[in-house]
Structures are given as structure tokens and as C-alpha cells.
Amino acid sequence: MKTCVSSYSYGGYNSDEKLGIYGIIEHAKKTGFDGIEFVEGGWQNDPDGAKKIREHCEKVGITPVAFLVGADFINWGSEDGKEEIARIKGLIDTAEALGVKMLRHDVTGGVRSRKYGIGYDDLLPTLAERIREVTEYAAEKGIRTMTENHGFFSQDANRVEKLINAVGHPNFGALIDMGNFLCADENPNVSVGIMAPYAFHVHAKDFFIKDGLEPNPGDGWFMSRAGNYLRGAIIGHGNARVAQSIRTIVRSGYDGYITIEFEGMEDNLAGIEIGYKNLKRFIEMAQN
Q: Tell me, what's the pLDDT at 112?
């Protein structure tokens, strides 16, 4: 099992006025991570920019693991989906230049323009067809594509599982985010157990939770789909029971990267460094 951190975890440190993209690569290595994954923000998202980042990772001695991109195969681009498919194929080219072997793309935020034909099962055949074309292209380049349980619409374990099986391609699987199931008001440990067989990649994320019957806690909190309150936490500090989910992931036979995706209010560097120590400890506990 290897450790990884998302560039997203660094928040404002991605800006050139602070660490910048090259500085966070160096910080990730110094902290002890084996790999780093990249989101779209904070760097030049094209093959030339990706090549420079890959070269810096090689210089520092850390593995570029994955590239995470936004997408919506229902609402963005042309109605037939061809524009969005072409755009994601272009980002797969960027992923190839970045030297990663995995790309996570969103699927859709759902339909809001009508009151019929908007259920997950209604959109599933269209999503599966378009995602299959994307993953077939990625497979030619040796890059696996993934869906993640996030974005509210495609966040429940049963929905994500259904999507993966509808696509039905060995190159398409899951990025399991342990904490994100809480956004759909699911028990993360139960949902991780459902999704573990489909895992290509894993995020460790923690949240503080407050019941929706309580008053709004104020700044820093957001609402789950059912109206409960969540706030990002350092790994091990929150209520998402990350250690238990890691045990489930290890027991399933998964042996890839577990990536910290930090969304807390604490200083990002402190949150990442404390989270790293806890993540390492939780992995060791799960393996013994």
C-alpha cells in the first residue's frame, strides 16, 4: 500500500505567491508521500505543461499518480455528447504527458431543466455509452479511467456501482472517496464495502458531522443531500471512521495508492502533515 496526496489538498498554496505547483510537489515528497495526484487548477493544463510537471516529479523523486478532471456528459457541450467526449479525450492526452496511469472524470450533475426523465436510471444508458467511448480511447494509451462518488447526483454507492457495470469495460472503475459518501447521507463504512471490489484508486477524506435538526453551525460547513451539516477534517480527526474504511479496503485485496484529499479549515500544510501521520498509522493497523 502506498500513500499519495492530491494537489487539491493544498488549497491556496497552489498559487505562485505561495508554494506553487512545483513547491507542493516538493512538500509532498518531503512529507513522505510516495505519490501525488493532480487536479486541473494551478497549472498549465496541456501536454506541454504536463510534461514540465512530470519532469519535476522525476527530479524530486515522487510518482505522478492520477489526473482528476471535471466533466458532464449530459449538460456540457453538444447535445449528442461529442464535444464533451472530445474534450475529455484531449485531457487524456494531457494525462499521458503527465505520466499518470489513471484519470478520473465526473459524469454529470443531473438534469434540472425538466421534471421527468431525470432519474439516474433514465440517464444511465446515455452516460454508459459516452463514458465507454472515453475509456476505450484511454485504454489505447495505457490509462485507466474512473468515476468518483461525488457531486451529489452520482454519489451513492449503488448508483456508482450501477454505472460501472453499465459501462462494462475493464478499463473503467472506481475512485472510492471514503468521506464523500456522507454527502449522500450514507454510512461510509457500508458504502466502501460495497464499492471496494471496483477500486482503481482510493481517497482518504474525513468530515465532522452535525445533525440537520441542529442550527446551522455557520462558516466552513455545508449541507449533505438530506440537509445534514458537514465540515472537512484532518484525517482521523472527524467522524467518517476512516480507519475502519481503510481496513475494509485492505481486506478487499486493494494494494494501490491511498490519497489524502484534505478539505479542512486548518492550515493546509498542517492538515496534510498531521493527516499523513494518521494515514500511515491506519494503514499499518489495517495490515497487522
A: 86
